[in-house]
Amino acid sequence: MPVGIRSNSLIAYTPPSWAEKLKNVPTHRIQLGHLNTPVHSWKLPGLPRDVQLAIKRDDMTGSTLGGNKIRKLEFLFADALQKGCRHVITCGGLQSNHCRAVAVACAQLGLKCHLVLRSGLKDVKDAGCEGNVFLDKMMGASLYYVPTKAEYTTELLPRMQTLADKIRDDSGEDSYLMEVGGSSDVGFYGYVEAFHELEQQGVLDSFDDIVFACGSGGTAEGLAVANHLTGSKLRVHGVAVCDDAIYFHNHCNTLLAQVGLTDIRSEDILNIIEGAKGLGYGLSQQPELDFVSEIAMSTGIVLDPVYTGKAVLGFLNQLKANSSVFKGKRILYIHTGSNEGIVLWFSMLVDCREFLERTMVG
Ligand SMILES: *Cc1c(COP(=O)(O)O)cnc(C)c1O
């Protein structure tokens, strides 16, 4: 393959020097994202005057293959290919960005994709074809529906394992099982590398705080651990859009043990901001949807209603409530959002007629 042209093949991976001592460092990655993503200033309305804000555009890691999940998938798919798997099985919510990204990457790499999706559907025929479900189907993924409240370890994981067994019985082929959100000790390296990218972009010395949405914890873990290992003095804040601080610290402490960092605890390297999840994961209220529209109109940045909209709103509220903590600080918001599917779906949540009337001229 000529230089500069990508292939789907494995690339040898060497971690940044500060990450070399971690346990089980991946040996390979593949290239899925369009990196490095840009950083630019962001004039968010309602920002206190003495605070400076910039945004890292991880919403621009790709198009259908976009957002923060791609960084994790570069390592997870390398692992799947190294293990000789022909199928990938993962799970998430009905409108999961992670599942959509896995479906796209599978299509690109010639693997078969199986998605176990949590939904409140009584009948699979009601699944519809909206947003990410549309993209999942377009990419040829097989979809399996489970109840919204299905627990990962007791229900989703066994379901994925049964499916893998059936695939092996039917075809003799192996399946790669991927955790919710790709937040495993392999996917973790996606955001270790993202931090390395920030370092190379020279932004570490220009900021005091980094802030982002926290859903399954992988983004938070990669950034917080890398920040700790480099000795950088940035404060790392994940805004919880589901679960709570205890949940994310537990998840992160498990990861710390897996990578052999037993001398630190999640609580020392990561701040989880609560109070942003509203009605709960994936559920929106009108003021949150209005906020997403307002930010689009005033800054040209599209947030999504599930993660980034709630995270930015929650963070702004935190800035106002705890102004002394952020007074005079230089803050980098990491836009984790790929909006491809979620925005299609968002367009169904807003009342388009009311929206049109509000924005109509003459
Ligand atoms: C998945 C997702 C997140 C959450 O990232 P985690 O690593 O799972 O915590 C945030 N924003 C968007 C847009 C996402 O799709």
Automatic annotation (TrEMBL):
GO terms for molecular function: D-cysteine desulfhydrase activity. It holds the Pfam family PALP. The modification N6-(pyridoxal phosphate)lysine is found at residue 69. InterPro entries: ACCD_DCysDesulf, TrpB-like_PALP, TrpB-like_PALP_sf. Residues 31-337 form the Tryptophan synthase beta chain-like PALP domain. Coiled coil: none annotated. Keywords: Pyridoxal phosphate. Its cofactor is pyridoxal 5'-phosphate. The active site is at 96 (nucleophile). PANTHER family: 1-AMINOCYCLOPROPANE-1-CARBOXYLATE DEAMINASE-RELATED. Belongs to the ACC deaminase/D-cysteine desulfhydrase family. This is Tryptophan synthase beta chain-like PALP domain-containing protein. It comes from Capitella teleta. The lineage of its organism: Eukaryota, Metazoa, Spiralia, Lophotrochozoa, Annelida.
